[in-house]
Amino acid sequence: MRARRSLLAALAFVLASGLVGVRTVRNMNVPGHPTLPLYAMNDFRDASYYPVAALLEGNNPYDVPHYTNTYPVLSNFPLYAPITLLVHLPFGLVSQQHAQAAHLVLDVLLTLALAMLALRGACVPATPATVLGVGTLVLASHPGHMSLFQGQCTIYVVIGVYVALLYARSRPAVAGLGLALACLKPTFGIPAGLLMLARGDIAAVLVCAGVSAAVSAGMGILLVRAGGGLWPFLASLRANYAAWDSSPSVNIADSVHRLDGFAVVGRLLGRSLSTGETLALSAVLVALAALAVRRVARLESGDTQPLSSSVIAVGLLIAAYHQAYDALVLTLPAIVLATGQWERAGFPPAMRRALLAPIALLGANYLSTYAALDWLGLEGVSRLVVTSLSGVTLLVFFTLLVTAVLWPAPMLVLAGGVRGRPRQGA
To answer: Is 84 within the bounds of a domain?
Structure first.
């Protein structure tokens, strides 16, 4: 029976990876022709491959005008941490065509690593059947499909987050390296590090800080030299941020895939948030998540802490800029919810029922895509509602989770009484 389940899971994984692989290959961008209506692996081309190529040729990839005019790309290289150039360096040593194919295969294989780490982080046995089953669900989800199709680095960034959360107590050096990998995208690494500090994972965060500083210093020397000096390089970073902030994929009125709290609040206000407002809202969201992490961590023992890790995963997603593919980080919280671990910790059954629906919607929401919007012909208010669906769902999910942890009384009301009251201190 076990072998049969593994075989069925393997067949499902091959089918799911085949579907996304075929769609990606059929729509693969043509090297040297970025304006053609073929856009698969565009993010890998613009944010991974050509930034490395630029640096290897002695150019500053953060310099938007020079980068976009010199290389066949559609968008500028965003303000990813310099470690991204080191991580993606091997791809820059081969042709774009070969690099794209290698990255696609690597992402499919790393889906299994992500599934295994999510299962272990959720204290669920990582058997071949469960790893392949979770990997299949990841590939079938909108975040997983989108990440592979666009050639995003999200899969290995999430792997870095999971390594940091899983090994923070038992192997802080390994956890620190994982967090450093997650810092490839600062919108993952910074809030994850802050919430890990709230949980008490000080050694892992210090290791990450040391590794990140060393890599940034080494890459920084090359970047400053390529940028023509320190001040011209810093000026290119400021201009890069301004260009990123005004791009359609980021602008709250035009963005289809944003799901962070800033986009939701901005759409409610009818305008983008100022830098000060963004920082203030981020601080509030991180503080709420940190309080929840500390409260939940008191209920857990041992090296693996699935409940507080779940809160960290949700908190880092809501408290910083994120696109739909970044919801891959919710794989671990989804497994924790599905296996009923919150109830075993003393939380009411209503918590599971209230949280499973929004997390499932975040994984299955294919409506917030350009293809679906064009097919449905949505414009104006209807388009705004559909493109806000994932962001509102994430905000509701975060609100319910923090409320259940910090103020359990509303969940007890939903449960119909005091049955399942959390343990003392919850």
So the answer is: yes
How many Cβ atoms sit within 10 Å of the Cβ of residue 390? Answer: 29
Of the candidates 206, 126, 153, 135, the one whose C-alpha atom is nearest the C-alpha of residue 46 is: 153
Residue 80 per-residue DSSP state: -
- Residue 423, domain member (yes or no): no
- Residue-wise pLDDT for 86-103, tens only, equals 999 999 999 999 999 999
Which ranges of 227-346 does DSSP label H, i.e. alpha helix? 230-245, 261-269, 275-297, 306-318, 331-338, 341-344
Residue 50 lies in domain: 7-415
Q: Vertex 280, ends 277 and 285: CA angle to 5°?
A: 125
Q: Which amino acid is located at 10 in the chain?
A: A
pTM of the complete model = 0.92
Phi then psi for residue 34, to 5 deg, are -70, -15
Q: How confident is the model at residue 417 (pLDDT cuts 50, 70, 90)?
A: very low
- Measure CA of the first residue to CA of the last residue in the chain; give whole Å: 40
Identify residue 336 by its one-letter amino acid code: V
Say if residues 287 and 311 touch (Cβ distance below 8 Å).
no
Number of separate domains in the chain: 1
Is 369 within a domain? yes
CB distance 280 to 272 below 8 Å: no
Q: What's the pLDDT band for 106 if we cut at 50, 70, 90?
A: very high
Mean pLDDT for the stretch of residues 381-410: 86
- Whether residue 168 lies inside any domain: the answer is yes
Q: Tell me the pLDDT tens digit for each residue of 107-128.
A: 999 999 999 999 999 999 999 9
